[in-house]
Batch of 3 targets.
Target 1
Amino acid sequence: MSAPEVVVFLRPGCHLCHDALEDLEALREQEPFTVRSVDIERDDRLHARYLERIPVIALAGEELCDFAVDGERVLQALRDLRERVGAGAARRRPTVAPPRERTAEPLLRASPVPVERVSRIAAPPMPTAEPTLAPTPAPATVGSVPGAAGNADPAAPRLGAGQAERLSRYLQVLTQARKMGRATMSSQELSAHTHVNSTQIRRDLSGFGRFGKRGVGYDVEELVARIRGILHTNQRVGIVLLGAGHLGRAIAGSDVFADHGFEVVAVLDNDPAKIGTPIGELEIGDVRHLAEVVREGEVVVGVIASPAKAAQGLADELVEAGVQIIFNYSGALLRTPPNVAVHTSSPAVDLLHALYYYLS
């Protein structure tokens, strides 16, 4: 039989994928096979199926392993395939072989295909091959900020929703560690603070370059900068805060946005007693000027920190002004058009989630 083909589903630039290809190259010294790489970035269905698992190793339509090469499993699968093919060939072989074939060697004892005759696995840049499924146009990058200038990078890898959420959590912890003077942090420490498995953390980061040193950990400053670039938050993002009550003042006075490069350009309210009074480095403005503030301040995000009864009206005004991302701290259930993303934040929800695991 000809050398069997091992398929590797990967993404260009993924160092785990590169390591897997090197591992497969070493295995070919024990069992002959060829390698075909499939770039999941070229097909949305492959991207959705394999993004969180790459590299995925498959043989004869069966997925053998993901994240890393399980050498013993791959070799056993190759041997099993050879036995199945050999058994099938034996069943099809004539009862009495023609004279010219009587001295032929049995299939399983045939000389193995020399390694030098098998196509080599390309070194970086990563090899690509046409996927078996027809490629479709790539959607917009997850994590891009509508309306923010300079964030459209066609070469940037697309993130799954789960990966984008985890990277945001890593960034939050790393940013706080930097404020505390930490220079390095290990994946185990990140795991303890984010409740994400350390293996998953290394997998998430591996697709964007080599980070950290064994026994030392990640360079906090470098990793903060790299994750900000991946999430497209290394640019100015304007925010308008609606509501200057206790919650609004707490948000405006905290570093929750500034730590990540976001700029609160205005705090607006409808209470005449508050309008014109200072709040941090800003002065509380009149909410009637919302459209003007959004336009002149290049506002991307609206934050609602008002009482629940006023929240829907404020959301309607944000939508009319062109804001497409709304953070809702009011607790109200907001109705917005499909193109407007609403993120509701509630400490009670986080507490319920934590208590469930503590009490169960």
Target 2
Amino acid sequence: MATIKIKQTGSPIRRTKEQRATLVGLGLNKMHKVSELEDTPSVRGMIRAVHHMVEVVED
């Protein structure tokens, strides 16, 4: 299955609990950390929920 790399670019400070939990679910918790996950609809939805704090990294 295809994978997708996500990099955290925004801070979770002053964000809701749900957004912080979404970042943890994506394997992110510190600025500029990169996580590689399977490209599934659920992961895409999580990225969409915190799109202002993450970016998709191209290989």
Target 3
Amino acid sequence: MSLARLVWSAELLRYDFGRGHPMSPARLDLTMRLVEELGLLDTPGLEVVGVGPAPDALLETVHDPAYVAAVRRASEGVPDPARGLGTEDDPVFPGMHEAAARLVAGSVDVAQAVWEGRVQHGLNIAGGMHHARRDAASGFCIYNDAGAAIQRLLDDGARRVAYIDLDAHHGDGVEGLFWDEPQVLTVSVHQDGHTLFPGTGNPADVGGARAQGTAVNVALPPRTGSAAWLRAVDAVVPAVVREFRPDVIVSQHGADAHARDPLSDLRVSVDAQRHGARIVHGLAHELCDGRWVALGGGGYAVVDVVPLVWSSLVAEALHRPLDLALPLPSSWRAEVAEASGLDAARVLGVEEVEWRPWATGYDPGDDVDRAVLATRKHVFPLWGLDPYHD
């Protein structure tokens, strides 16, 4: 068994909504250049693979055939705003179908490799398009690669799949696909939907009638910082995932919870996001014999955040965690300057975050603690867990 499988090729940069759109493919390019210059691609046991576009039959495991046909037409210049195609968030571009279908193929490829025991961990930083719905594009997401990966795992025999979403925005598309599916647990830690797109993900949203407790939403107030964010993750994610006992974990690591991100109001540092990935990684080894599929997602501070968060994610999956004080390669910094005209970070992060585990006690005067307790009160009793005590 190899250690990890990473989907990457320059063709993934074709997912490009055009100049001025927040989801610039430069965030992927700069991330992978940093991953390479840090020497991570030379890790023994790492496989790097390219993929072609997913066939329609695969896309239609999570999308309506009529929607797939609409995306094909949009790729040829025929927008369909009723299906989210040709909007400000999701403008049409030539080859859109093939570009989006390639993201799906990548996430399904690594999920299959993990499930079949060929690798322990699978990585697709170009994936994590968690807003796409069965019949519509939404929030920069055309096809839902995370949902397709989860569905393939179920089709191939997984009894329980846990999906953990650490993006600043609620993972509504994945939750919606599996809302009434007891074999899938979706856990989303995000900024409160009353203050941020997509406006969903309330603590009381706990799943359909057949799957009560399998949708878990931690809705955090704006300006939640690193220590409080980690406390929220610690307070909810390990407990419900352990109770669910998944066969495999699929996680989404949008980097947009960072203070410098222009599209959210959270204040979560590179180190805190790195630690969040470590928590997920640890659960995969504790509960799933290491079976872990890690995806990218949002992240719009293209130069000074996304490459640092996602190179840290790759390093975590390769069991080679990076030192925060590690000087970033001067050659990479020069590439950033040439590509963007901006100064790149000199080190991975400023300092490690000190945070207080939930087990140390609940503070009723703290906004984040109250948000966490709301989730625990709605979800924990459905799993036979005490919302007030660990």
